[in-house]
Amino acid sequence: PVMILFTSGSTGPSKAVEWSHRYALHYAAEDIEHWELVEQDVLYTAYPLFHVDAAVSTFLTALHRGASAVVMSKFSVNIFWDDIREHGATITTFMGAVAVFLFNKPERDDDAENSLRLVLMAPVPDFWRAFEHRFGVQVVSGYGSTEACFPCWPDLTQPHIDNTCGKPCQHYDLVVADEFDVPQPTGVIGEILVRPKVAYTMMSGYYKDPAATMEAWRNLWYHSGDLAYLDEAGFLHFVGRKKDSIRR
To answer: What's the pTM value of the predicted model, to 2 decimals?
Structure first.
């Protein structure tokens, strides 16, 4: 084990996910491969270091590539673009409503005068094309989790396709299955199941919670709890969570 990271807790209390050294380095290597990172890139995050985006996708990925990482103590709508310009940031991630907050700010003549080249959004809002045009960035999206790395990635040479999360990559098996873990036909909604092709490139388990670990890994597949479908071109379409909850 190298560290413990916590899930977003979308349907309940956050789970403590145990990571191996190989998983951490593989996650960073995936970022480097699919984002086509170079040493000149500057990765920016304002998320906490107990979350995978800051600890691995930003800090460890930059370290592994020999690039630079900027880790802020908190996110601020008012100073975000000033931070990007000051540090020369080239890549960042927007989760939740961050893109909405930034897009709703009054437009400025210099909105597109920034160093960002790539913004990973999850979810991608309907106005993503206007966001790209206004801020001069490329919007992309993928599918991943703290437990299962990023089994789906976009093609950077192609524009984002509405309601898609990229295609399954060569490092993982991914199926969309019914409640009996039977793969579903194209276009049929089911649960996303993932398993690695190389050992120790997903979580080792939930820390001190063997029951939850066994439940998640039943039938030799990691059960994500996410609902989606695959289209005829092989793109993953995220639909929602298998379980609903109200956070208060």
So the answer is: 0.91
In this structure, which amino acid lies at residue 111? D
Give every residue of the chain whose pLDDT is below 50, as ranges: none
- Structure tokens that stand for 216 in this block: 């998640």
The closest alpha carbon to 145, from 59, 13, 23, belongs to 23
Length of the chain: 248
Task: Transcribe the chain into DSSP letters.
Answer: --EEEE---TTSSPPEEEE-HHHHHHHHHHHHHHTT--TT-EEEE-S-TTSHIIIIIIIIHHHHHT-EEEE-SS--TTTHHHHHHHHT--EEEEETTHHHHHHTSPP-TTTT-S---EEEEESPPTTHHHHHHHHT-EEE--EEETTTEEEEE--TTS---TT---EE-TTEEEEEE-TTSPBPPTT--EEEEEEESSTTSS--EETT-HHHHHHHTGGGSEEEEEEEEE-TTS-EEEEEESS-----
CB 247 within 8 A of CB 14: no
For the sheet with 68-71, list strands across it: 68-71, 42-45, 91-95, 118-122, 138-140
Report whether the peptide linkage leading into residue 13 is cis, meaning its omega lies within 30 degrees of zero.
Answer: no
CA 41 from centroid of its chain's CA atoms:
18
